[in-house]
Amino acid sequence: MRKISRRDALRRAGLRPVRIWVPDTRRPDFAKQCRSQSRRVAAADRSDPALLRLLDEALADIDRWSA
Questions:
Q1: 56, 50 Cβ separation under 8 angstroms
Q2: Residues 33 and 39 sit within 8 Å (Cβ to Cβ)
């Protein structure tokens, strides 16, 4: 009897393999890029009061997320 490979078992469970690309955290400029992007996001957030209200409401309702 043939042993089912892990990949075959996952496929039979309805999953499929995918390849994703992620940032290389080993690059010398990685931390600098993170800071730069974080500053841009923070500046955009500060200029959008509706977004801030939405985030505050979501945070206030966090206890219901896992219910």
A1: no
A2: no
The domain limits of the chain are 24-67
Residue type at 43 in one-letter notation: A
pTM of the predicted structure, to 2 decimals: 0.50
Please identify which residue in the block is written with the tokens 């690309």.
Answer: 21
Which residue in the block uniquely carries the two structure tokens 């977004």? 51
Residues 37-53 have pLDDT tens digits of 999 999 988 889 898 89
| pLDDT band (50, 70, 90) for residue 67 | low
CB atoms within 10 A of CB 10: 13
Give the distance, in angstroms, between the CA of residue 62 and the centroid of all CA atoms in the same chain.
18
Total count of residues recorded for the chain: 67
